[in-house]
Each structure stands twice: as structure tokens, then as C-alpha cells.
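User: Predict the structure for this protein chain, please.
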Amino acid sequence: MQIVIMGCGRVGAQLANLLSVDGHKVSIIDRDPKSFKRLGKSFKGEKITGFGYDKGVLEKAGIEHADAFASVTQGDNRNIVGALIAKREYQVPIVVARIYDPIRAIAYNRLGITTISPTRWGANKIKELICYSNISTQLSLGNGEVELIEIEVSPSLTGHRSEEINVPGEIMVAAITRLGRAFVPVAGTVMNDGDLLLVAVASSAIPQFKRILGI
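Assistant: Here is the predicted structure, written as C-alpha cells:
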């Protein structure tokens, strides 16, 4: 993929390095050329000095043929402007913006800009570590609204049907791993001792999920 990144701070540099190592064609933009020192020696992409929402700079970075654009500067306004230009002026298929303000992140998400709010995600994650330390989250989706949680079937659940855990719109058993093989449960699937369940849980329903598990 051809990818343009706006902002070579810690996140931008890390993202650029990861994508470059994976073989993608990466151009990274920053107004401060000193910031490019954060890039690793393995980075093979283009370094463009300038403002990421300047069309001339964006075109120099290859925005007209880009498959994806990520704006990850320290400023929400800059990230929003850059993302809107990439999406509306150049029709870049995948546009992602880091927005610290969680309310604005939701608003721009509704306008078709995929947003990541580290503020909201971080708060949800810290809350989870404090309040739910006895469950194992494998993956947080979106900004932490839904968690994929892995649990081992306890004696109290052994012999019960997996759908007994489900709560529509809040809790759903997505997969069961039994003797090293994973499968998607169907109606009537009985849980065995030692099964590992992968459960999708709305973050607001985690207390209810714990009550169901009896922990």
C-alpha cells in the first residue's frame, strides 16, 4: 500500500517504521525536519518537510495515489483538517485521525473519518485494569466500547449451553477453543471443563459479565 502519514512524533514515527518494515511505501510529513530523527535506520520511505494540510506538500508526498492517510500530529485541529482534505479533496480510501477530544472524535467518526481517541481508549483501559484485573482482555475494539475477553470455563459453567452466557447487544460468546481447536458455537453447544471462551463484551456490561461468571 502507498501510505501518507502526517506528523512524525512518537506515534507517527512508530507507525511509519512498522509500515515500512512490512514493505509498504510510506511518506511521512512533519514541519520540523529534526523530528525525522525518530525514524529508525530501517525506514525506507520519503520524509517531507512542511505542513501536512498544505496541498502542495500532500501532493509531494503522493496523496493523489495514496491508499491510506493517517494524521497523528499533536493537534486535534491539524489532524481533522488534514483528514478532511485527504478524504474529500483526494478521495483517499482509508483515512484515520488521532483526536484527543473524545466528543469530537465521535462527531468526526460520524462524518466518515475513522478516529482514534487515545484519551477515551486510555481511560477505558486504565479503568479495566483497576476494576477488572481478574479477566483477560485480548483485544479492545473501536475506542474500547467492546472488549474481546478470554476466559476458561469454570466448574459452575461446565455442562451449560454457551448461549446461556449471551445477553443480546451486550455479551456474546464468539468462539470456543477445545483441545487446541477453535470453533464458533451454535445453539445447544455445551461447554466442557477446560474450554477457553472468547467473548465479545460491551465495556458497560463487564460488571454484568462478571456476575454471570460468578467472579
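The CA atoms of residues 142 and 197 lie 21 Å apart.
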